[in-house]
Design brief:
The chain is about 35% helix and about 20% strand. With about 350 residues, the protein is an alpha/beta fold.
Length: about 350
């Protein structure tokens, strides 16, 4: 493995950025956005497993961020920014394991950045960090971030928000940015997201218009989506602009049962959430699907996001609508799309 490059040295002078969790849905798009940015000279991608995918200007290191893992400080030294994206969604049946990676590993990343003297930390929070909120209007970044306590994903995202509250007080010299995107989709992430949320038993080729007869209109089923490449553009702007704080990221329009039914050429059937949750809970207990019923509960409670601050301070505007992002993802499901990284392998 080649040595890392400090900022302003090597064949391409510019900012040196370390991306933690660089091989997943968000990481691959963020790496591409950074290496294409004129202010960035080199990117060090950290992941549990080294990828075959090697874009120009990027180095790789296999790293475990969990307690007892690699010393992160030498990897962060000389970086202009650390972008923390690493996240483990599974196993939902063992929340202690995801906590070890997501929370304890995240804290190690934050502490390592401070010890290395990194001036900027960009953290992947989520719409899932927010407390239950309205579906008829969008909320800004001041909405409470207490999450939904039953779901491990929302609980862990919320906990790291509290960690960063204290971290900013202890390290006022570090520019901390918290990105809070809606659900992120792209073609290359289709195989990964099918495994994470639906399981391997779902035939992707059947997720096409005309083959899904109905879309249930559940109370609270109104959410937002965003193309992952659009989210990555916001991350690159957060690295290269002198901004701080939280940024909501979402594309229009919000997705409800009627819009989803139009995508699938299906009928809308109004029904209560309880029987859908009961079926999902039974399938989850039998390990037929990996997504937990607690996450289902959280999704129905998520607020809609107002992205005005990102537009104003990051100069950000999504290129894709929410419907276009979902349609590209669905096409990827049918094709079995992926990338040459361990998380995105088809």
């Amino acid at each position: 493995m080649t040595s890392t490059l400090p900022a302003g040295s090597g064949p391409a002078a510019g900012l040196r950025v370390v991306v933690v969790g660089a091989t997943g849905n968000v990481g691959t798009s963020v790496v591409r956005a950074l290496v294409d940015h004129p202010a960035v000279g080199s990117v060090l991608g950290l992941a549990r497993r080294l990828p075959e995918w090697r874009p120009d200007g990027t180095e790789w290191r296999a790293v475990n961020i969990e307690p007892g893992g690699a010393d992160l400080v030498p990897l962060f030294e000389g970086a202009a920014a650390v972008v923390h994206l690493a996240w483990k969604f599974q196993p939902t049946h063992d929340p202690a394991e995801t906590w070890r990676t997501n929370v304890l590993g995240g804290i190690r990343v934050f502490e390592g950045a401070a010890a290395a003297g990194v001036p900027a930390l960009v953290h992947a929070s989520s719409v899932g960090a927010y407390s239950p909120g309205p579906k008829d209007r969008a909320v800004d970044e001041s909405w409470p971030t207490h999450g939904w306590p039953q779901a491990a994903y929302t609980r862990e995202k919320s906990y790291l928000e509290r960690v960063l509250d204290a971290y900013e007080g202890a390290h006022p010299d570090i520019r901390v940015v918290r990105m809070r995107p809606a659900f992120l989709f792209k073609r290359e992430a289709a195989s990964e997201q099918r495994r994470i949320f639906a399981g391997r038993l779902l035939p992707g080729r059947l997720i096409r218009p005309g083959l899904i007869p109905v879309v249930p209109d559940l109370p609270g089923l109104r959410l937002q989506a965003l193309h992952t490449d659009d989210a990555a553009a916001a991350y690159a702007a957060a690295v290269t602009r002198p901004v701080r704080g939280a940024f909501n990221l979402a594309a229009e329009p919000p997705l409800d049962a009627e819009r989803l039914a139009a995508v699938f050429e299906a009928r809308v059937v109004r029904m209560p959430a309880a029987p859908v949750r009961a079926a999902l809970s039974a399938a989850w207990r039998l390990r037929a699907v990996p997504a937990s019923p607690d996450l289902f509960d959280a999704v129905l409670r998520l607020p809609l996001l107002d992205s005005s601050r990102a537009r104003a301070e990051l100069g950000w505007k999504p290129r894709y609508t929410a419907l276009e992002a979902v349609q590209e993802f669905l096409a990827g499901l049918r094709e079995g799309a992926g990338m040459a990284t361990a998380p995105l392998a088809s």
